[in-house]
Amino acid sequence: MNLKNKIAVVTGASSGLGAALSIALINKNAVVYGLARNEVRLQQLKDKCGPNFHPVVMDITQNKILEKWATSLFSKNYIPDILINNAGIGLFGKIDELPDTEWLNMMNTNLNGMYFITRAIVPFMKQSDSHKHIINIGSIMGTMGKEEATAYSTTKFGVQGFSQSLFHELRDHSIKVTCINPGSIETDFFNRTGISTHSNMLQAADVADTIIHVLETPDNLLINEMMLRPLNPRKPDNKNSL
Fold first, then answer.
1. pTM for this structure?
2. Is residue 152 annotated as a catalytic residue, yes or no?
3. Chain Cα centroid distance, residue 209
4. Number of folded domains in the chain?
């Protein structure tokens, strides 16, 4: 796909990988609708990216508000070409210590939000014969279980199943579906989760550039799953390092 003038929707766009993806897409002359709850950070990203970045203050777990936004913006004459489901939260802890609210928040954002935004966007993608692409950001924690990651891994295993089923459902509509499973990325995520980091984490800009490469593959070539890991990590003693 040639990304010039393509219309992209990026969730979790205000920081970390979402911000890096928005910048990378803008640098390819795409038009980006960046969704997030943090209005201040979205405006800062708008100031950096310029007129092709459109900040959208949105909680993707609010499905009715989300659907209203999508139907008011998109039509058969203005169709999104790319959806990047990046929004996600995580907190690690023992199953008998993690609060119910954290479990529900992770399920709601990591799975319900992804489902709701995809359901809102796909009908518009189907209205065009041109190739479209959905990128779901999973995690290596969605490919393996790990102590004290019960809740987070459950949501990311769900992303795997969602992506695989969606791939089969949309393949004949010229809509690609790719699940990207990164290891540890140097973002604020690790400060919030309480898990350890190491000295050679993936950089958000590098992961974003890799995803750009996936988007730019030939129309008849699909990378349906990709795992990204840092090279030569210096592992700390903490067993929760990624």
1. 0.91
2. yes
3. 14
4. 1
